[in-house]
């Protein structure tokens, strides 16, 4: 994984001292809140309902065991003993004091971490998938370019006061597990017939109140030109994006109003001016960054392990967990482990300090000390020898992290909602819990893989539009109500879900969701996924079934 | 103009004011040190009037309209109506890199200490700090971080081409 050199370290340390000075000036009244606001946002600090919230960057979701222990330390020392992992592979702490923030950032800097540009109208954390580097269907490790782009975007002076936030994701595998299509810039990295690395560049995705999937603007960008192309997109956005209305300021709106062809022409014209420029990537730089992501020294192992097989055969609970949590690995004898952070034992995305420490210990004991955060808010141990899986499971059981529900109904993506967030119009966590509770694990297994996403407001932090079942919290004359969409999907065939009808009350929601999954069970052919069934039969049967035996 | 920080080579000078005056509108008889709005200046150039060598660019002006006339200018001011509106950074970039403007480039308006190093990297070499702020205090913001990853106007090479990492 990427290790800081003296330059990375100097930048992060100086940034901490810069922010320490800014916080002091804010606290003395020298800086007004209006002047301080973008400074604190670009250092990860939001002001929420109860306290400041600090969002810490986990670039492309990759953490070392020491970094995870550092997060546990922050949870204990500066928060209330836990943290919340987000869909963009970051972590948020919810109970932060302003005066503590410079020390928190200094602690992060000491473990090669930061909170730079995790908020604000700038380029945010560059994301990819949790299985980067170990997925069998991968063409090229997407973290390498995610890191190159991260560095280019970090404190890039021209692009820190954009019209609105700007999110970039990279994927380079058959299956897109990084929700690339809903990003401002989505990058699919592939090898052409000559084995040259190229990008398909898609621009203008984003959810929120006007959801759009991004649109292809360039199909065959040479890898060495990715920075100049992103620069061209950002310059066009910075100059022409709307600034009069926060809700119309994302690049998706600019593209929608210009039309994708006119937008592409603008970008190409700008790009031609800077194409042969200083930002052309060199082979040396690619090799330098790539060398940081070399695979760990895997042992030569048989793909089947007798003891592991015996445990599966003799222990039903272990076997149930394996079937949901153990993922294929490109190296024989190894597997990746997805650790569910979800209901009923946990709050989606939340881990307490003890759980963080346990995961760090397991990573050190069995998995080369590496950890990933998944878009689904789960934690992944990417490199575990199969022969150790049983011990990993036993250890996870002790800290309530061995839930066999990865990919199932109760593995919902959920934002913090009205419990913490002052943008939220409705609660998320308690409601998601109620939905999870109306399913037994057997019923969940019967439904199989499904994505359910619940956002507490229109800003769509839980990406409800691209959930197979999307749930959006609204406020109807003081009561929490939930609007439901069906047919959303992420991945290469991403789709925005369709609203099924009137929003339902908190009490009715679990029944309605169950009606929808029942409609799927009643209609599915053989091994069809929820989305395949939806594509075949359309919205109507779900709409018909949803409100059965609930008043609207 | 007031609260002026100027950077020449690596020297910084701070003055309470200088002789320059921003004109809100165009005018017929131009006095020395008056700075015309870009559109008014371009109109004078088109009419063949003596047009002075100073303009200021508003937030939604397209600096590329100065193409072909840029050699007539030795002083350009870029207006920041709100420090959170980052268009002025791209304006500075385009003036310096696309139009190869070599003269003085000043940021004015909502210009604050914590953005000065960014502005400097985008090619500004003087600042009229927001009225009511102390320019000596603001000058502490010029230096910025010692490490930058990307290239910029003031440092065209990205870090990986500047140093051996």
Automatic annotation (TrEMBL), chain A:
Taxonomy, superkingdom: Bacteria
One MF annotation (Gene Ontology) recorded for this entry: heme binding
Key words of the record: 4Fe-4S, Heme, Iron, Iron-sulfur, Metal-binding, Oxidoreductase
Residue ranges of every copy of the Nitrite/sulphite reductase 4Fe-4S domain listed in the record: 119-271, 450-546
Family annotation (Pfam families): NIR_SIR (PF01077), NIR_SIR_ferr (PF03460)
Gene3D superfamilies cross-referenced by the UniProt entry: Sulfite Reductase Hemoprotein, domain 1, Sulfite Reductase Hemoprotein,Domain 2
Keyword match Signal: no
SUPFAM superfamilies recorded: Nitrite and sulphite reductase 4Fe-4S domain-like (SSF56014), Nitrite/Sulfite reductase N-terminal domain-like (SSF55124)
Domain Nitrite/Sulfite reductase ferredoxin-like: 48-110, 348-396
Family statement: Belongs to the nitrite and sulfite reductase 4Fe-4S domain family.
Protein name: Nitrite/sulfite reductase
Species of the source: Marinomonas arctica
Automatic annotation (TrEMBL), chain B:
Highest rank taxon of the organism: Bacteria
InterPro entries reported in the protein's UniProt record: UCP030820
Protein name as it appears in the record: DUF934 domain-containing protein
Species of origin: Marinomonas arctica
